[in-house]
Amino acid sequence: MKEEKKTKKVLKNKLPKAKKQFYYDLLMKARNEFMTQVKFHADEALTSQKDSAGERAGMATHMADLGSDNSRHDLELGLMSSEVDVVEMIEEALQRIHDDEYGICLDCGDLIAEARLAAKPYARYCTRCKEKRESMEDPGRRSR
Fold it and tell me: Are 56 and 50 in contact (CB under 8 A)?
């Protein structure tokens, strides 16, 4: 039996200047939005505020309140971590624009559909490869 080797098809994707600027602007807008979210979650998770009685929030006196505070803290840290992951993907996409590799699937080398990039400008995989990856993942660990 003959084995087929899958090779990456596209090495560079020289976008027209207007398209490059369009995707750059989309990425910068998304980056600013996610950075705002990161700051919000960091403030929520890492700052101690006073409640209406003047006591430090997070210093619960009842075990149920302490559990709720810890749960909220963990949730904020998890959300912040997820947002930071997206910011890293955006930074990688900005670098790929600079290197004329933007819009190329990191798995198969095909071009990523423009509609997908317009909706999610930091997409790293074409729809087919992303679906294949998701079918192999644990549903609880899916990435963006």
Answer: yes
Number of domains the chain contains:
1
What is the share, in percent, of the chain residues with pLDDT greater than 90?
47
Which amino acid type is present at position 34?
Answer: F
Rounded to two decimals, the pTM is: 0.70
Is 43 inside a domain boundary?
Answer: yes
Distance CA 128, CA 105 (A): 10
Residue 80 half-sphere exposure, CB side, CA atoms within 13 Å?
Answer: 15
Over residues 75-114, the pLDDT tens digits come to 777 777 788 899 999 999 999 999 999 999 999 999 999 9
Q: Residue 3 falls within a domain, yes or no?
A: no
Phi-psi region of 103 (alpha: psi -120 to 50; beta: other; left: phi over 0): left
By residue range, what is the domain housing residue 49? 17-141
Q: Which residues contact 100 (CB under 8 A, 6 or more apart)?
A: 12, 13, 14, 15
Report phi then psi at 138, rounded to 5. -70, 125
CATH number for the domain that contains residue 21: 1.20.120.910
